[in-house]
Amino acid sequence: MIAFETLGNEERVRIVDLHPEIGDLCAEALEGLHRTHKALPCKYFYDALGARLFEAITELAEYYPTRTELGIMTGFVDDMANAIGPHATLVEFGSGVGLKTQKLLDALIEPSGCVLIDISKDALEASARQLAARYRQMEVVAVCADYTQPLRLPRPRRPSARTVAFFPGSTIGNFTHPEAVRFLKRVAELVGQGGGLLVGIDRKKDPTIIERAYNDPLGVTAAFNLNILRRLNEAGANFDLDAFRHHAPYVENEGRIEMRLVSTIDQRVRVGDTDIALRVGEHIVTEHSHKYDLEQFEEMARAAGFRLTKHWSDEQDWFSVCFLEVGGGLSLRERRHQIELG
């Protein structure tokens, strides 16, 4: 279904509803809890309370990713806009009202339009109106869809020089490496030959710094993690939240943080009509957050059909915003090789 929202004298907002499957929290939870290594799907963190808790996490002194990426965007956004070029269509995986997206749109030269892709239709409609009011010369297309699944991209009416996707926030680190490569392949197909992807990645660094960011002393991250059990209880489960503790270690051989809920007692929990046994000390993984070095991420990009042609980092190399392109110029690896050959 396609609906049009008219603002001013022209139709500058299109809402395209692809009716994505929302998923069944209990069914997906049971599938994960029956695994040898128990897990819960991290996509269910973000109800209204979960979203507020995550916003609070981004303000914590220990949590460096959000402010570090924002600092990179602030310092280098004009370079990013020049790399993207004029008259581009920007595709944002998310609702598109974040400060980072607005910084990029402010810097882009006469963008042909902005396409937002998110599973929440209400959030999309509100975001589309907000962006259209802010950028009065730009058409906004809001697509209600699951961006982790294949989809066809609606195009703005104005001619576009290229399509570039924007995926900030190091969210790509929530995928396993094979999942990340599959996602990047879908993005490469979505933007097409000559298209690009501007993506944030959290860099490998001192594990103490990383662990501190996910185990804050105020317990905000713990509350965020436990919220998934609260949501399951609302759906009919009977988790005792006091019988679990939050723990997020850095697993060095995997290069990732694992958000865990650790059972503090031997217990049985009920999800729907099914009992699940947990031993004291047994944990449920609720989220992965992979960290990368540039060479590793460049290999993943190449496997997906992209070239990593530019990147921007903070002074400590804690975080990078990478520009990947389908076809076109030399990758960073190829440039380094040319330099080595003299």
What would your notes on this structure say?
The chain is of the alpha/beta class. The chain folds into two domains: 25-61 and 208-290, no CATH class; 64-205 and 292-341, Rossmann fold (3-Layer(aba) Sandwich), CATH 3.40.50. 35% of the residues lie in helices and 27% in strands. The protein has helices at residues 25-33, 48-58, 65-84, 99-107, 121-134, 177-191, 207-214, 220-234, 294-303, 332-341, and strands at residues 2-7, 10-17, 88-93, 113-118, 139-144, 162-167, 196-202, 244-247, 250-251, 256-263, 267-271, 274-278, 283-290, 307-313, 319-325. A hairpin with a 2-residue loop joins strand 11 and strand 12. Helix 2 packs antiparallel against helix 8 and helix 3 runs parallel beside helix 4. 41% of the residues are buried. The model is unreliable at 1-9 (pLDDT under 50).
Which class of the largest domain in CATH terms? Alpha Beta
Number of DSSP helical runs: 10
Widest beta sheet: strand line-up: 1-2-5-4-3-6-7-15-14
CATH fold topology of the largest domain: Rossmann fold
Low-confidence stretches: 1-9
Extended strand count: 15
**Main beta sheet, described?**
9 strands, mixed
Give the mean pLDDT: 92
Overall geometry: globular
Give the CATH superfamily of the largest domain.
Vaccinia Virus protein VP39
Order of helices and strands: EEHHHEHEHEEHEHHEEEEEEHEEH
Structural class: alpha/beta
